[in-house]
């Protein structure tokens, strides 16, 4: 599937919780959109040039639309605020097709653990498990119930299988009990803020369920970009530039006045992806799949390096 962005139109914007809006996109030509499975996300190219990833939280069977939910992050880098301010019916955005690094694996049943806006990738998973007739339970935590998106929709789907644990009402959920009582053929899917996921990881390890835990984090740790020096050859211009042990390809490009697209500068958004013509990339990103890294067809110039003395890029 092509990773090139397509222009989609905002069909609807709905406030689904305090500081959370759901945005539904559609094709400008009335066409079906690229298929996706639970756990997938799309990448929005905002008018400012920022690229942001948002989990799809609609129904995969609904091929005419994509739905995401976006939390306004006051302390963020500006992407969520920009989207909140510009998203209105009729607005047009560039959207990269769905990509899935949090796929729902076959299992005898599931325990879903959500913290705040981390509910978004789990919502389609609940629908899938329900349609498949599989047992599941959702534990959904948040600061206050008013800040927790889709609560009513979730209760309609799951009834008493949904446990809503707002800090200001029910208190925090008992993760030790939830994970400790998990049947052996069930898998845990968790998404939420780092402290929650760190706690889930520790509890799963203590319960002997670490191998059945699947996580999706809002952010990733800073990539290690240091390494042996090498040269990068830019095939279009014929220029060859040295990349030092503490510099990156992207940093070298920018220092030499060469324009290259970028956004996150930490190897997770895919904006700076470049085609490799020769040499073996030393992948440091979290964007490419293991198979894509093994192929070595592309590399993320913001963090990745080279196994060897020279890397030739289609730049």
From TrEMBL:
Residues 3-105 form the FAD-binding FR-type domain. Transmembrane segments: none annotated. InterPro entries: 2Fe-2S_ferredoxin-like_sf (IPR036010), 2Fe-2S_ferredoxin-type (IPR001041), 2Fe2S_fd_BS (IPR006058), Beta-grasp_dom_sf (IPR012675), FAD-bd_FR_type (IPR017927), FNR_nucleotide-bd (IPR039261), MRET (IPR050415), OxRdtase_FAD/NAD-bd (IPR001433). The keyword Nucleotidyltransferase does not apply. Keywords: 2Fe-2S, Flavoprotein, Iron, Iron-sulfur, Metal-binding, Oxidoreductase. Gene3D superfamilies: 3.10.20.30, Nucleotide-binding domain of ferredoxin-NADP reductase (FNR) module, Translation factors. Its cofactor is FAD. Signal peptide: none annotated. It comes from the Bacteria. Residues 230-315 form the 2Fe-2S ferredoxin-type domain. PROSITE patterns: 2FE2S_FER_1, 2FE2S_FER_2, FAD_FR. This is Ferredoxin-NADP reductase. It comes from Pseudonocardia parietis. The lineage of its organism: Bacteria, Bacillati, Actinomycetota, Actinomycetes, Pseudonocardiales.
């Amino acid at each position: 599937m092509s990773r090139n962005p397509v222009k989609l139109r905002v069909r609807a914007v709905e406030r689904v919780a305090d500081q959370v809006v759901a945005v539904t996109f559609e094709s400008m030509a009335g066409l079906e959109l690229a298929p996706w499975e639970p756990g997938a996300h799309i990448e929005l190219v905002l008018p400012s040039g920022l690229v942001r990833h948002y989990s799809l939280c609609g129904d995969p069977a609904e091929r005419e639309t994509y739905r995401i939910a976006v939390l306004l992050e006051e302390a963020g880098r500006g992407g969520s605020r920009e989207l909140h301010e510009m998203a209105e019916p009729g607005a047009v955005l560039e959207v990269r097709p769905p990509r899935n690094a949090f796929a729902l694996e076959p299992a005898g049943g599931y325990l879903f653990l959500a913290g705040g806006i981390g509910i978004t990738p789990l919502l389609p998973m609940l629908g899938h498990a329900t349609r498949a007739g599989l047992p599941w339970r959702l534990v959904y935590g948040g600061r206050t119930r008013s800040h927790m998106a889709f609560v009513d929709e979730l209760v309609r789907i799951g009834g008493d299988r949904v446990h809503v644990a707002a800090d200001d009402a029910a208190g925090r959920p008992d993760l030790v009990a939830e994970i400790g009582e998990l049947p052996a053929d069930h898998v845990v899917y968790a998404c939420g803020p780092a402290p929650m996921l760190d706690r889930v990881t520790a509890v799963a390890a203590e319960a002997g369920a670490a191998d059945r835990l699947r996580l999706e984090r809002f952010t990733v740790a800073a990539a290690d970009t240091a390494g042996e020096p090498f040269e990068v050859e830019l095939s279009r211009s014929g220029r060859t530039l040295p990349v030092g042990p503490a510099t990156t390809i992207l940093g070298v490009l920018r220092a030499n006045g060469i324009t290259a697209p970028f956004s996150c500068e930490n190897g997770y958004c895919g904006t700076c992806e470049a085609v490799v013509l020769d040499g073996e990339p030393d992948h440091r990103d979290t964007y490419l799949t293991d198979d894509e890294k093994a192929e070595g067809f592309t590399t993320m110039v913001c963090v990745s390096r080279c196994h060897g003395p020279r890397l030739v890029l289609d730049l």
